Automatic annotation (TrEMBL):
This is Methyltransferase domain-containing protein. Pfam families: Methyltransf_11 (PF08241). Residues 98-193 form the Methyltransferase type domain. The lineage of its organism: Bacteria, Pseudomonadati, Bacteroidota, Sphingobacteriia, Sphingobacteriales. The keyword Secreted does not apply. It comes from the Bacteria. GO terms for biological process: methylation. One of its GO terms (molecular function) is S-adenosylmethionine-dependent methyltransferase activity. It comes from Mucilaginibacter aquatilis. Keywords: Methyltransferase, Signal, Transferase. Transmembrane segments: none annotated. Residues 1-22 form the signal peptide.
Length: 245
């Protein structure tokens, strides 16, 4: 009997391990299949990461080393930032999330118009810069928040407006991020997308860092947002407003 038990034990262990391994592989396959229904993959184009969402290749992220470009002297004139801020659908009671705030170029221009601005950033260098700049400008209604790759890291139903200025095309997980953003917005909350116009070959921006209105609307509609309007008038960018259904 002892010999029999000794022979059977490895067999039982082998069966259990194989069964566990098979279950794990099945779970991995399911996860892969689920992921592939959302994203597809290709050889990366120039300035792209090779990951595609609804026909659009996601662009490479501009690191905080490019902060000087965000604060360039010509930006106000090139983008008519004053008009963009004026057109934001906000009032003194509004809570605004500036997604991918960068240096706070928009954050600190919006702050005097609203109740609070949540400056969302992923990069530690940007977070430190925003905190320092907020103290220098004595903007007590600016809160710096460390976001995540798939979420702005905000409570549900806490924000009236989410602003994304030339950042959406770089989100590595656009579907997950939009769904998290949907939860963060209050009922009737809005998203404003400022993106360089992909329809216009005259806009001097790299192709994957421009986006068309049609493409953005397709992606947001798939995640529960209704198109409201495109406030035309900016020199190079779309000013697209969407609302949470």
């Amino acid at each position: 009997m002892l010999i029999l038990r000794t022979c059977l034990l490895p067999a039982v262990l082998f069966f259990c391990c194989c069964n566990q391994h098979a279950t794990t592989r099945t779970d991995e396959q399911k996860a892969t299949q689920q992921k592939d229904t959302v994203y597809t993959y290709k050889k990366p184009a120039k300035n792209g990461i090779g990951k595609v969402y609804k026909g659009r290749e996601i662009a490479q992220v501009m690191g905080f080393s490019g902060a000087g470009w965000l604060e360039r002297d010509t930006r106000n004139q090139e983008e008519n930032v004053q008009l963009a801020v004026k057109n934001l659908p906000v009032d003194k009671k509004s809570v605004v999330a500036d997604i991918g705030a960068g240096t706070g170029f928009y954050t600190f221009r919006i702050a005097p118009k609203v109740s609070k601005v949540l400056a969302i950033e992923l990069q530690d260098e940007a977070l430190d810069y925003l905190k320092l700049r907020s103290k220098e400008l004595k903007q007590n209604n600016v809160e710096v928040v460390k976001g995540m790759e798939k979420s702005p890291n905000l409570p549900d139903n806490s924000v009236d407006l989410a602003l994304l200025v030339d950042v959406y095309h770089e989100l590595e997980f656009p579907q997950e991020y939009l769904q998290a953003l949907y939860r963060s917005l209050k009922p009737g909350g809005k998203i404003v997308m400022l993106e360089y116009r992909g329809e216009d070959p005259e806009v001097p921006i790299k192709e994957l860092h421009k986006t068309t209105e049609k493409q953005i609307t397709k992606e947001l509609a798939a995640n529960g947002f209704t198109f409201v309007e495109d406030k035309n008038g900016l020199p190079m960018q779309h000013f697209l407003i969407y609302q949470k259904k």
